[in-house]
Amino acid sequence: MSERDARRVGMRDVARAAGVSAQTVSRVINDHASIRPETRRRVLEAMAALGYRVNNAARALGTDRSHVLGVLASDATLFGPGAGIAALERAAREAGRWVTTAYADAADPDSVDAAVRHLLDQSVDGILLVAQRIDTVARLERDAAVPVLALHQGTALQADAAALAVAHLAELGHRRIARIGGPDGWIEEGARAEGFENAASAHGITVTDRWSGDWSAASGAAVAGAVADAIGRADGPTAVAVANDQMALGLMSALSAAGRGIPSDISVVGFDDNPDAAHYRPALTSVRVDISGEARRCVAVVLDAAVPTAIDAPVLAARASTAPPTR
């Protein structure tokens, strides 16, 4: 039996396979002294054959549900994942569930598998993924013993927000723009890149350059030299869309240190609209999505509940880092 089938195995299934009552199975699980060795052996063999996972959180209540959701995240030090984790915890509480969180290196399958095993050992009713790779999501959907869903999976919110950033630059008069994306293979990067490229094409904008980072401010600073060189070309970009605010911060800091003006030499727009964005120098233009509404949708889907429809459209906060082009 596969792990996915095992999520439907309950105490009554084990009792039927072992030829005993559900009460006897419960006594075996709780190591009751009155159980005969032969009966214990049959129950344990049935549990192993069926792939039954002991639900420590639920067994005292006599149910097969723990009312706990697992969250698998890659890095809570970045604003996006941190905000996602917090939103999922709030949404779970609203749904009457607790949350347990495990962290793993999203680029390391062994690290991810160990974190998933940790969550499954706590008998979670489902796993919500934050900042994970597309291939990781597909593998866990196939192999995990409980429902699995990634934050932002299957929605157009990220793409729509990226398109909003491009539309803002187009309205300001920019016709040559560049992009700094996140690492390849991530759910968020794929959606944001798609929204950016489609919007650029729709607005007749030329994408002059494409770079990538790892979501950190340091990686934004690392491409600043290439961005400065591109600005100096006659056909270089007059604006750059960055896949998150932290990379935008690193880029702006490094460009300013190199003597480049923002937005006089190049406009910069970020993504996430983190609470610090208004305090960057210059204040960063950024787009944000309704992370709370998205989290409620994810929790509802994993719990097979009615899916809420009240998810707000993306919003652009226009600030001092963007202006009409001067070149």
TrEMBL record:
**Which InterPro entries does the entry mention?**
HTH_LacI, LacI/GalR-like_sensor, Lambda_DNA-bd_dom_sf, Peripla_BP_I
Name of the protein this chain belongs to:
LacI family DNA-binding transcriptional regulator
Q: Where is the HTH lacI-type domain?
A: 9-63
> Organism source for this protein?
Microbacterium horticulturae
Q: Which one of the record's GO molecular function terms can you name?
A: DNA binding
Q: Which CDD domains match?
A: HTH_LacI
Which keywords appear in this protein's UniProt record, sorted alphabetically?
DNA-binding, Transcription, Transcription regulation
